Structure formats: C-alpha cells, structure tokens
Here is the input.
Amino acid sequence: MKPLFWLLILVSCCWCSLYAQSNEQRLYAPGDYGSRNWRIPAVRCLADSSILIVNDMRKFNEGDLPEDIDVVCRRSTDGGLTWSEPLTIARGTGVGQGYGDPALVETRTSEVLCAFAGGNGLWASTLENPQIIYICRSNNHGQSWTAPENITAIVWGPTADNPSCKPYEGGFIASGNGLLLTRGPHAGRILFAAALCRNHNTLDNFVLYSDDDGHTWHVSNLAYSNGDEAKLVELNDGRLLMSVRQSGARGYSISQDGGETWGEQGHWSEMTTNACNGDLIRLNDTTLIHSIPNSMKRENLSIFFSHDEGKTWGNPVTICAGGSAYSSLTLLPNESIGIYYEKETNQGYELWFKKISR
Here is the structure.
C-alpha cells in the first residue's frame, strides 16, 4: 500500500490512543445556582491561556427563547482544573426579555466578543417584535463585559447590509465558536455564521464579518440554502469551509474570498448525523476536527478527523456515549483539545468540560 495510507492510519491511531489520557468535570447540573436547566455550550482558549466558557442559564425551564434565560460565563486560569464562579454577561428579566445561544470569538487585539440572541423566539420573529442579535465585548479575557449592543438592523430586515437579506423575518448567530482569519489578504477578519429565517419555517445561512474588530459588520451572500446552525474553519490555502447542521448527511460550502461569497452546496455522506449543533476547528497543519453526535439521535457525541482539509472525515472517537447533544471545541496548548458539551440525564442536560491531552 502507498506510504500516505500508512501515514494517515498512524496519525489516526495516535489520536485515538490520546483519548485515553483525558480528564473531565461537570460544570453545571440541573438545579445548580438556582437554575432549573443549563444548555448551549461555547468554549475558547484565549491569548492569555485562560479558558473561557459561556452558556445559557435557563432559569425556569429548558425552553428556547423567548423564555427567561441568562447568558453566563466562567473562566479557568489553570488549564481547566478549577473554574471561577459564574458571571452574568446578559441577564434576562422575563419571558420575551431573555438572552441565549452564545458564540465566542477573540480579535487580533485579544478582545473577546460574545454574540447571542435575545427577545422573541426565532419562528415568531417579526419586524415589530424581532428576535434580536446582540454583541458584548470584554477587554480583560472575560472578567467583565460591556452592555449588549443590538446589531440586528444590519443583518436582516429593511436596513440590512446585504439587500438580499431585507425580506428575512428573523435570525441568530450559531452558538459555539466564531472565527479569526490568520492567512492571506483578509487576515484579522472576524466572522460568525448566522442563520436567517424566511417564511417562519426555513433557515438560510449567511456570514457576518468585520475587518475592524467587530465595530462595523457586513453580511455575505447566501452561503447555504435550507441550512441551520453552522461553523467555519480556515483552510491551509486561505479558503473557508462552512459545516452546516442537517438531518442526515452533514452539509458544507466553501468560500474563496474570506467569507464574502460562497460556492456550491455539498454533503459529507460519511458524517450522517442528527440535526444538531457541533463544532469545527483546526488541530494542526494537517488535521481538522469536528464534534457532532455519531448517530441519527442526539447521542454518542464524537470527534471526527479530516486529514485532507475537510474533503473527507473518518475515525470518529466517542466523547460521550449515550444521550449527548451540543458541543464546542477549542485548541489548548501542546495540541491538547478542550471540549465543552451537553450530557443528557433524566433531569435535563448537564454541561461538562473535558480536556484531552497527549
């Protein structure tokens, strides 16, 4: 057989054996801190090597917006061994006045942006009573945050930056991770994948991008039709890859120009999963990793590996056997992996952080 084949087998086996060297902690369970439920994890290892986690505090039930939900964060400065007490980023004040579905990105100046939704529920969103898209900022690695800034008007509706987004009725930024570009003419650009609602029953994916650290935003052309929550990664040649939530074969699309325009839609038949949010990051120069349930149910959360820049995926390694759903990935020092994820129990989801080391 060809040497490349054996190299890929060796790499995959090395990473499979790595998973025996892991530790995990439960960070939230139903009832903790007076909250009935916890959901929607996001994690990012920051420039100062601290680990920041953000998620929904669903105080009274497990429902999505417009329920009364807070967005809260915790930090670890010792590699995930210990964690700070929860800090509220945005506090809900009643039904229709909550916040949820957070996503994180760190700018080239090490400022952290947290994007999330608020107000009305997605499927009921209208111009008069919209689901709102907010941004908060932290200049001290998540220890304090600015007040939420409403950026909805540039994303969808009559004043949208992209004229093709004017007819949409609602939208949100996919929870988990945004992306900071590091290659080519758009280095320093930050991006979030967004899902916009049409006809109150269909989602299309677009990308929000900023070249001034999130002070002004623009919206791409259509990236994926009939999509849902999506994630972005930068490829070695500077192109961008979008992975899109689908029921069945996971969807994807590619951009050649820093996320402004997108090519044809495709599907990964080898990654046939439940319609669930997951995450996609670069592990090193040769490997991408993707977290998603390896099942047509929300169970058996796994990490898939790609050694050909996202063309194909294989060698899934189970992170959580049994009921499990949303997850977020981050790269830790020495190519360790941090994953923050939902584990299902009879009382509702728990949120766990697992560190996977060499």
Q: What stands out?
A: Confidence is low (pLDDT under 50) at residues 1-14, 16-20.
